[in-house]
């Protein structure tokens, strides 16, 4: 794996993903008040906080799904036209009528990875041709995580990725996240449970 | 500027092909087309897998049309005269049936977030969804309309004109329906709201479409009506995906 680029290469701002004074309303309530941080390439950020403290809202803002009411999200110091992000929400976005492999087809076509390799990375290969409605909650979560592995993008945004996963699957997830970071990728994740993310920065909301 | 960001990303992962998860650039026009084709493929796969839902609209169309001879009597002259109107109203109502799930299912299970992040502009997502709706509902309706028209004693000479009107008509209905489905997304009782929103918008399509077939039936030229129908389609083609895209962005926010 090549080393992450040096910050000095960037003429404007900082390398990596940075949030500058993000404020966001959820309904009538201000859940994010001037949140700022920077995650360098290869870095990870844990979003911590009580229920309803705005972790999911912040992730949706970072994904570009929700527009912040104030502030800006920058990638390498700029606001790009299309965000190089992969997002895993609370929901698994798994279609029960399609097989595990078919569920990945859309991500595999827009990305460049091979669906079978991604399934193997999450130990789902034996279930590849099973309709997703027969999968357990944890297996569906792993299928949603396999979609991330397929995305050839540097920023991964995870909303409680370990929801429903067993210990072995959490360990596998740790390996996947480490490989992504070693390639210069960024991981931002909201969680209530300990995650296998060594030297991750923490942000308390 | 994306060029700058891409350059750095390429730097960050110079061994792009060997790594398990690398950071390739995306977001240019070719990638948009790839994403559109991938989305269309996904939609068609889903509508084939849920074949019963797809078939339901066509069966509704044929059954609703078959109710009219039972209700008003099988006299050929009465039936034949109102046949274009029956076919058009039934097609309009049948096209509404699958709209509720067009975005609803993807919205509820989180797939819509993934689709919106796939590198397609929101208007493109709406356009592909409208095309998928037409291929899954409009086209089967078009195929079933001929037999239904013959069953309703429509003058055989007017059948090709009826179908020629239904082709742009169902396309326009798919576009308007996609707009309505995107607008009511996330609203309570969206399924009830949807026909109330779409039916008034679809009235011009119904008027010109039925008028074309009726003109052909009475020996007049259907050309002006068909041209007006095409004009409605030409207006809906750029406007509906744009408006639906804006509604989708609001819905996922």
Which secondary-structure class do the elements of chain B indicate?
mainly alpha
User: Which chains make the largest contact?
Assistant: A-B, 56 and 45 residues
Bin the strand percentage of chain B: under 5%
Strand content of chain A: 15-25%
Q: What proportion of the residues of chain B is helical, as a percent range?
A: over 70%
Which segments of chain A are poorly predicted (pLDDT under 50) over 5 or more consecutive residues? Answer: 1-12
Q: Classify the secondary structure makeup of chain A into a structural class.
A: alpha/beta
Number of helices of chain A: 5
Report the strand count of chain B. Answer: 0
Fill in the keyword field for this structure.
heterodimer, A: alpha/beta, 5-stranded parallel β-sheet, 8 strands, disordered N terminus, B: 253 residues, 10 helices
Molecular structure report:
The complex is a heterodimer of chains A (205) and B (253). Chain A has a domain of 60 residues. Helices cover 28% and strands 24% of the residues of chain A. Chain A has five helices and eight strands, in the order βββαββαααβαββ. Chain A has a five-stranded parallel sheet with strand order 5-6-7-3-8, sandwiched between helices. A three-stranded antiparallel sheet of chain A has the order 2-1-4, covered by helices on one side. In chain A, helix 2 runs parallel beside helix 4. The two termini of chain A are 33 Å apart. Chain B is mainly α and 253 residues long. Chain B is elongated.
